[in-house]
Amino acid sequence: MNADTQKQPGKPGWLPGAAAILAFIACNGVFVLVAFLSFFGIAVAVDPHIQAGVTSVLALLTFGFVLIAYRQHRVRGPVILSVAGAIVLVGSMYIYFNKIVESLGLLALIVSAVWSWRASKSSTRSSGTSSGGRND
């Protein structure tokens, strides 16, 4: 690899995980927050359309960040899993709502983000050690 095509190692590594966790919080964390606040007598109304939109945008961001990380590690598995997770999650939000299907989509996104992070980490480690000992 020459200097023009070499990417900064580890830069997109945490972005897919952060987007996946934020999608999980936007999807399930809001209900926990509303329940917690109602315990103290505070009523909060959450618009489900806005919540679905935010969750969908974060799911698509997770896919995008996994795709960016793919350019570094070249492992197809996380990309395929994030596409499946994003399609399932967005489909669950807008076509037919099912909490189990929605949870499976979130799980697929989180697993793809972790897989992508591990692949980025191992490709950075292997690219750093493969030419480190040679004097060309």
How would you describe what is shown here?
With 136 residues, the protein is mainly alpha-helical. The chain has one domain. 75% of the residues lie in helices and 0% in strands. It contains 4 helices and no strands. The protein has helices at 15-39, 48-73, 76-94, 99-130. Helix 1 runs antiparallel to helix 2, helix 2 (48-73) packs antiparallel against helix 3 (76-94) and helix 2 packs parallel to helix 4 (99-130). The longest helix has 32 residues, at 99-130. The protein is elongated, with a radius of gyration of 19 Å. The protein starts with 14 loop residues before the first helix and ends in a 6-residue tail after the last helix. Residues 1-6 and 131-136 have low confidence and may be disordered.
Residue windows where pLDDT falls under 50 for at least 5 positions: 1-6, 131-136
User: How many domains make up the coordinates?
Assistant: 1
Q: What is the overall shape?
A: elongated
Rg, alpha carbons: 19 Å
Helix/strand order, N-terminal first: HHHH
Helix content: over 70%
- Through-space gap between termini: 13 Å
Largest sheet data: none
Strand content: under 5%
